[in-house]
Amino acid sequence: MSEYSICGVLVHARTSLIDKVKSQLEAINGVEVHTATDDGRLIVTVESEDRRFVADTISNLHKIDGVLSASMVYQFSDEITATEGEMSA
Questions:
Q1: Which of 18, 45, 50, 63 is deepest in the core (most CB within 10 A)?
Q2: Per-residue pLDDT tens for 18-30?
Q3: How far lies 25's CA from each of 3, 60, 74, 75, 82, in Å?
Q4: Cα–Cα distance, 38 to 41 (Å, whole number)
């Protein structure tokens, strides 16, 4: 069985670069920006079946021009199991 990981990340960006940061975040596979505030805070999730990918992606958020900080505030992982429909097929 595979494992699926999802992490919630609070990203703080320079207000003058918020749109650029948001676009760069959204271009990363497995990253979703849920909201951005006028003062530069972005609520982001990073998810994948590859735990290392998630960890590396979060670490690399700091390298994006305009990002002041990126802090993981939530983490969940669980085994991926077949859905009921897949089991009966």
A1: 18
A2: 999 999 999 999 9
A3: 23, 11, 18, 18, 30
A4: 7
CA separation, residue 39 to residues 18, 42, 76 (Å): 9, 9, 28
Read off the amino acid at residue 39: D
Residue 42 has pLDDT above 80, yes or no: yes
Full DSSP string of 13-42: E-GGGHHHHHHHHHTSTTEEEEEE-TTSEE
DSSP character at residue 10: E
Round to whole Å and give the CA distance between 60 and 4: 20
Residue that is written with structure tokens 């749109």 in the block = 19
